[in-house]
Design a protein that fits this description.
extended; alpha+beta
Length: 454
Amino acid sequence: MQALWLVFDSLAGKGISVEIVLNFLWYTTLIVVPQALPIGVLLSSIMTLGSLSENYEFAAAKSAGVSLQRMVRPIVFLAIFLSGINFLFLNYVYPYAMLKQLNMKVNIKKKQPAIALVAGGFNTEIPNFQIKFKEKYGEKDNLLKEVMIYDLSSKKGNNKIITAKKGEILSEDGSRYMTLVLKDGYYFEHHIKNGSSFKEREKMPASYANFEEYTINIDISSFSNDDLEEEKYKTNFNMLSLAQLKDTLPTMKQNYDAFVNSRAKNLFLSIDIEDLHQYPDSLINKELSLDILENFELKEKQNILVTATSKLERTINNNKTNKDTLKNKRKYLNLYDIEFYNRVAFSLSCLLLFFIGAPLGSIIRKGGMGLPMILAIGIYVLYFFSNTFGRNLAEESSLTAITGSWLSVFLMLPLAITLTVRATKDKGLLNISSRFDRITVFIIKIFKTIGRRS
């Protein structure tokens, strides 16, 4: 419901037809199903077995010679079946829904440019303009605070800058223009002629002015021609099935390795390692000082130091740029790698959470929507948090993709085994009295041993 309301809130009242909104909500529902199914299995298993225990159905069955394992065997098969259904959703329905929703979202933004504008950073979706603002507010989300605009329509760079304290977006359905009304702002433009040199540009005039209200008409005709069902993005990591991911990953890894090798080769050549050789002692000139700079005149020393410094700075800057590029490429590759392993790991969540919920329900002996609901939400939050945490670590290359994807399973599996064993042996959730009994017996033995020795 939270996901649906967030989507509905971002689309309602934006001039989008009801049919498009319903289609978008339908795709959102398909995306949420693989996450909702595990918590449904967890909650229902706790409620069902808790209710049976609360009404002494298990006690009656055991007195008739029917074991707990035999009673829950059909439900285990149901959990396995639901895990298979979850896998099919994750492998076929989820990628399809992500494909349709993302492309529809992009196309809706193009139909409604006001929706495409996001607070906090420069928006580059609108042709020939870069728009940044601090906040969007109002009933229609068309009022802006602290606006900055780079007008690039002259194709001469960021030479026209407009800032304003407030702004308002006005656009009508079917219009090829979006009107942006700015209030209480500042206008600056640096005039540049085509073909002028850098020195000539420095001498050219600039115009600037303060204004109370300034209106800009932005041509958005290129947006209105797009079909809402058009699919431009098809190869994102969450739009591919397991078979497609398996075919895509080798090529991506080869490209990544080729990029690393090329950067390493450039670094090797830039520091002239191939020019460093080891000379025998017999070839070393004894008259030369071991301090290399002492063998040159003062002017030559200065030239050497300047050349070395500039080369070192250039190499460091190149390495910083390559480091960021390498990190982004590795992160992008990790997303595909994580998605491949997570499809299988997350599909087993129904089975894993069943083996937590079923024994937990028989242990707490409480049905209904009270305590079972609280326990189910707490366990699922722990599972979902560990899954997200593992994926984030793998995305940053702190863990391998397979470890990050299966981290939640590794953490929750011991809990499932422990609860299942305790439920099978008719033990409580925490048998604290038995622990104290063991400690008491151990202390008594120690005192008896001390008494005998004394």
